[in-house]
Specification:
The structure is a single chain. The chain has 302 residues and is mostly helical. The protein has helices at 16-22, 29-55, 78-86, 93-109, 113-117, 121-135, 147-162, 167-170, 172-182, 188-201, 205-210, 212-220, 241-245, 252-257, 273-277; strands at residues 60-62, 66-69, 73-76, 226-229, 284-287. A three-stranded antiparallel sheet has the order 1-2-3. Strands 4-5 form a two-stranded antiparallel sheet. A hairpin with a 3-residue loop joins strand 1 (60-62) and strand 2 (66-69). The termini are close together. It comes from Shewanella fidelis.
């Protein structure tokens, strides 16, 4: 029996086994829940002015860089706040408190949950990935995954030497919100560049290798108690659908082949797509303290 993880020849459509076994909805459940989450967050920002006019209450005022919940609870992007601090200017206490609240929230849920469940750029990069699959474009060489940490360091260094929050001028997350909410479309070229980069040059280049925001949230989420776990690794039939759809596929192999089934890597976005597309129900969300050490099947061991 082979001692390596081999990919089966692809003779069927992507995730057809999961659709046949689980039904169309269960094979796409987390994908749709993520889209609902992403659209709902945007809708709260977009509709809050109208709700405030009608009911006198702001549900969510501002944008993903800095906002207020119900006009009382401050929420702010930890990376944006760090940049302000590094410019040498003392920000308002509400900005620092908002960053602490967001950091604590994602430390509990898993930092890169932001990337897959909130960030609007994720929809752009997922579209590029879907098109790559539909067009059957060849796999391209990947950039070093630690490159995003170097870019994070650069983003934090620039305010020290310039006194300006330089990254916020081109950060694609607020670019989408400014374009959609205020008609400021001058920065949409950044989104187009990310889409073309992911589609034609390097698969999952932006979210998987470059984004400094994702790098910081990954560091914040290292301590999260909620993780994806290959609880039924012994049932894996090597269909490779999870590898096809995972935005950080390097996190799957240790869980499937190692002694520790839980994906503890901070790279995991906890998008749940590996759970969706697996007909064998290998993956589940699990609390870290309840994790079980499951022996993977023999052919997955090296």
């Amino acid at each position: 029996m082979s001692q390596t993880l081999k990919q089966k020849p692809t003779t069927h459509g992507f995730a057809n086994a999961a659709i046949k076994e689980l039904g169309w909805w269960r094979a796409h459940k987390f994908l749709f829940l993520r889209r609902i989450s992403q659209v709902s967050v945007f809708a709260l920002f977009a509709l809050s002015p109208f709700i405030a006019t009608w009911a006198g209450v702001w549900l969510l005022k501002g944008n993903l860089s800095a906002s207020e919940l119900f006009g009382v609870v401050p929420l702010s992007d930890p990376l944006a706040t760090l940049q302000v601090l590094l410019t040498g200017h003392l920000p308002e206490l509400s900005l620092v408190l908002g960053a602490a609240i967001i950091a604590l929230f994602y430390a509990i849920l898993g930092g890169r949950v932001f990337c897959s469940w909130v960030c609007p750029v994720n929809m752009v990069t997922d579209l590029a990935s879907w098109l790559r699959r539909k067009l059957n474009l060849p796999r391209t060489s990947e950039m070093p995954r630690n490159l995003r940490y170097y870019l994070l360091a650069l983003v934090l260094f620039l305010p020290i030497v310039t006194g300006l929050t330089v990254w916020e001028w081109v950060n694609p997350v607020p670019v989408i919100y400014r374009a959609a909410l205020f008609g400021a479309g001058s920065g949409l070229w950044i989104l187009a560049a990310i889409f073309l980069l992911d589609l034609f040059i390097s698969e999952r280049a932006w979210c998987g290798h470059l984004c400094p925001t994702g790098a910081l949230f990954g560091l914040i989420g290292k301590v999260s108690p909620i993780k994806v776990s290959a609880v039924n690794a012994k049932d894996c039939d090597n269909c490779m659908d999870c590898f096809v759809v995972c935005p950080e596929r390097q996190v799957l192999k240790p869980a499937l082949k190692g002694k520790q089934p839980m994906i503890t890597s901070s790279d995991c976005t906890q998008c749940g797509r590996c759970i969706d597309v697996c007909a064998q129900r290998v993956f589940q969300f699990q609390n870290r303290k309840n994790q079980n050490r499951i022996a993977p099947k023999a052919e997955n061991n090296q």
